[in-house]
């Protein structure tokens, strides 16, 4: 019988213990989870305490209860607000998930021709190309491929980009603050190399986000193409009322730029 210590509430201690078991890989997705009776006996606490602990796991999407069948382990879906520019580390912390990263490519390159036009760059501009795998609780979630303007990125080029947020490093060492971003999300299928990196089947549905980001001063400094596991990350957006020609006082609506 496992002993529960004080003064942290018992239900929260149990929740953390159960969460650790799930995150450690003891359970596979769709495995049957403990019953309340089993947990009462395991921790020698009241059924009400167990219900509070289990409730937290359900709310966070780690387990699901099916009436008449039992409780099963599942993978929580991460909601990302596409209306807000948020770094991966911040997103994971928001969902109580441990973020990590693996850099698989890091190089200095001449700015690609298409990016020179998109980002209003000079012909001689050099860029830093970074490819990272982003993990949540050691599970691969995103393949990030980013291009940064070298002159801005140079002070942090040799720093640890696996243990640190790039945006936080840029802010700390170059005083770069994020401004607005343009982004587009497209559904794609995973090619073999991408599938291997993300631990999904070849052809699995992914979400491709292309993003252009400006500094607070209005200068483009980053272009990225990120592949998200669509089974683990969802995007939400807030819509505004449609403005018809009458709302615009007879002026035609401006078409969205489709150049990228």
TrEMBL record:
Is DNA-binding tagged as a keyword? yes
Question: Per the UniProt entry, what are the Gene Ontology biological process annotations, in alphabetical order?
Answer: negative regulation of DNA-templated transcription
A GO molecular-function annotation: DNA binding
Record CDD domains: WHTH_GntR
Chain positions covered by the region annotation Disordered: 238-260
Q: Which residues belong to any copy of the HTH gntR-type domain?
A: 8-76
Q: Which keywords does this chain's UniProt record carry? A: DNA-binding, Transcription, Transcription regulation
User: What is the protein name given in its UniProt record?
Assistant: Transcriptional regulator, GntR family
Species name for this entry?
A: Fodinibius roseus
């Amino acid at each position: 019988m496992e002993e529960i210590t004080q003064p942290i509430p018992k239900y929260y201690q149990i929740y953390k213990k159960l969460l650790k078991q799930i995150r450690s890989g003891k359970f596979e997705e769709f495995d049957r989870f403990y019953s309340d009776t089993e947990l009462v006996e395991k921790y020698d606490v009241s059924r009400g305490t167990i219900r509070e602990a289990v409730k937290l796991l359900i709310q966070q999407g780690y387990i699901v209860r099916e009436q008449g069948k039992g409780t099963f382990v599942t993978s929580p879906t991460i909601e990302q607000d596409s209306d807000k520019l948020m770094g991966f580390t911040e997103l994971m912390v928001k969902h109580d998930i441990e973020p990590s990263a693996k850099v698989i490519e890091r190089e200095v390159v001449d700015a690609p021709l298409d990016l020179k036009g998109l980002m209003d760059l000079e012909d001689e501009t050099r860029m830093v190309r970074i490819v990272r795998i982003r993990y949540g609780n050691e599970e691969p979630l995103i393949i990030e491929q980013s291009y940064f303007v070298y002159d801005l990125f140079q002070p942090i080029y040799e720093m640890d980009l696996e243990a640190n947020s790039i945006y936080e490093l840029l802010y700390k060492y170059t005083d770069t603050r994020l401004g607005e971003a343009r982004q587009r999300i497209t559904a794609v299928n995973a090619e073999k190399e991408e599938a291997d990196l993300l631990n999904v089947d070849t052809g699995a549905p992914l979400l491709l986000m292309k993003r252009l980001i400006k500094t607070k001063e209005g200068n483009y400094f980053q272009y990225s193409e990120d592949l998200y596991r669509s089974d683990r990350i969802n995007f939400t957006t807030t819509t505004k009322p449609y403005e018809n020609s009458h709302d615009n006082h007879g002026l035609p609506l401006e078409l969205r730029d489709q150049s990228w």
